[in-house]
Amino acid sequence: MNSAPPIWKDLKESLDFVCYEHQTKSEPYYIGYFTTLVDSQVLHRDILGRLTQDSNSSLDDLYNLIPIAEKEISCDSKIIENKLLRGYVAVQHGLHNHHTILFKAAIFEGRKVTVPQVEFTVEGAKDAFVESLDINLNLIRKRIPLPELRIKESTLGSVSKTKVAICYIEGITNEQYVNTCIQRIEDVEFDMIPDITLLQQMIEDNSNSIFPQTVGTERPDYVSWALASGQICVLIDGSPTAVFAPVNLGIFFTSYEDYFLPWMIGSILRGIRMSSVVFSIFATPLYVAVLTYHGQGISNIFLPTIISSRLYVPFPPVVEVLIMELVIELLREAGARLPSKIGQTIGIVGGIVLGTAAVEASLTSNFLLMIVALSALASFTTPIFRMSATIRVLRFPFIFAAQLWGILGVFICTLAVVTHLLRLTSLGMPYLVPFYPFRITNIYDSIVRSPYSQFHHRFSFFRSPAPVRFNKKNAKLKKDIDE
């Protein structure tokens, strides 16, 4: 066609934009859309087909005639342009009438809901978030069919125009946390937001801290539990991960699967997980400190074993430890970057071959090899990947401090980490709560997984307007299912 509405002039420069003129007895209709964004079946069956049947319809009649739920009339060029870029079809009657009908005909291309790929669980639901924001919100809404579930939408990124959804339950979530989260998201100025991990770093209280202050998950049942507890969930279009906050340190060592097991079993598994984290951080630094400065503290039982294993090792303990730690990190990165089948082979075969070769070449001792392997294995027990990465990085400052000052250096480094954690917050909530500030009523479910009869109140540090879950007197009348 030779003519087109003025607001479509710039869009016509794109190869995939189509501007179609439909002649009528009076003024023609102009139909514009992007072929790469529009479902051709919806376009021809519901829009173009209706124009053929009734060509003399006015714009208002056409609005009521076409059976598409999401539609609107606008004369704002910015709105029209934005909708076209979102998969809408624009219909304008005549060149001088700037009122345009916008019909949603976006094509959906993406994954169907499948099992979780990262947070796989034996017990519980098997569905996971996908890259479609509408599907993800549907998964949450199905689990929380309440009118109080609020979903606020925003758009970020001057280039990406990414849709962001903020979810919370009104009457349960503290309004101050909601306002803080919304304000931080609206204050974000960045051109491209391709994934929620970028937004996650931008809205955290301290972006320079290696400790994560929000939790990311791909499980809608976990998000529903967090919303019911008084937390806020953030999702973006194009990312299969949801982020919720505020959080404390203990939640990073809590697996949601703990709540699907009897409370005693869940408590034991949680205790093993926390002990593994402590071992993963302190095992190799203590090895360096003891062998470098405190050899007299080694038991006579282990002394012959350590001496024989280190007899031909030419390096000091710190170099020996750094070599093995770097080998483990290389194997881990190689296994993560390669295809899954090859990555598993590299992890297993590479670990065995390199470990055996390092011992036979006298680059390390059998004793240290065992400690490093157990330390790496212990770090994998952390349910949240970002905290697992933090623990991996945290070992290196402890190793250097142990080389400089021995056990005193390990103590100084521990003191520095604890001081940092005491100052850290998540949406303004203290990171070490309920231990600092101390909340004796919230100790339950922090170290152990408490029975459900103890969940009669929400955590006070979430400052929920509705702190009571149920009447605790009724819980005493009948034994809990997991007691």
Automatic annotation (TrEMBL):
<protein>
    <submittedName>
        <fullName>Spore germination protein</fullName>
    </submittedName>
</protein>
<keyword id="KW-0812">Transmembrane</keyword>
<dbReference type="Pfam" id="PF03323">
    <property type="entry name" value="GerA"/>
</dbReference>
<dbReference type="InterPro" id="IPR004995">
    <property type="entry name" value="Spore_Ger"/>
</dbReference>
<feature type="transmembrane region" description="Helical">
    <location>
        <begin position="343"/>
        <end position="361"/>
    </location>
</feature>
<dbReference type="InterPro" id="IPR050768">
    <property type="entry name" value="UPF0353/GerABKA_families"/>
</dbReference>
<feature type="transmembrane region" description="Helical">
    <location>
        <begin position="367"/>
        <end position="386"/>
    </location>
</feature>
<keyword id="KW-0472">Membrane</keyword>
<comment type="similarity">
    <text>Belongs to the GerABKA family.</text>
</comment>
<feature type="transmembrane region" description="Helical">
    <location>
        <begin position="271"/>
        <end position="291"/>
    </location>
</feature>
<feature type="transmembrane region" description="Helical">
    <location>
        <begin position="398"/>
        <end position="422"/>
    </location>
</feature>
<keyword id="KW-1133">Transmembrane helix</keyword>
